[in-house]
Sequence to fold (214 residues):
Amino acid sequence: MRSPPVGPDPAGAADGGILTVPNVITLVRLLCLPVFVWLVFGEKEQTAAAILLAVLGATDWVDGYVARRFNQVSTVGKVLDPTADRLLVGTAVIVIIVHGAVPLWFGLVTLAREVLVGLMVLVLAGLGAARIDVLWLGKAGTFGLMFAYPAFLLGHGTASWQDPIRIVAWIAGIGGLTLAWIAAAAYVGPARAALSAGRQGRRDAIETETGVGA
Fold:
């Protein structure tokens, strides 16, 4: 549920290739999605599914950290990691909506924000925008939502112990969703600046090449 940075990595960063540790971590997270769906609808084990979803959300940062820490950043990873994040969010939200653990409106507002940010990232990347740093508001919103959705699933039921879990889920969910949308709006300014910087960088590169060629 994070908002991934846009644009190229700093100059000089090597391509780590395809078979890297962070790419394997991302692939494992993707392979856990069918397990999550099976736990909810096949085994009717919503507690186990909630725990798995919480783990997948909590490890969202691991693959990116490993890639940067051990210099294994790769072109494949730049595509695979945000793709896995979007698939994780989309699958989790849709499954929890269908399961009835969260109201339709809340799930749709969450999905709308993810689609909006995802499209923005793709458009800016396609236009050659410079890198955009993740805002702390977005990180806070992501944390709230990553906590809220497993809690919604865990608190879905009639048992007395689930009542306080639902309350906590709503507090985290409303707070996280509000911050996530505020962050999405706050990216407009940096996105324009990144697009301008990217265009200027391309112009400078062309002028440099032209000067060298002359």
Remarks:
- The helical segments are 21-42, 46-58, 62-69, 75-99, 104-126, 136-154, 162-186, 188-213.
- The two ends are 48 Å apart (CA to CA).
- The mean pLDDT is 82.
- The longest helix spans residues 188-213.
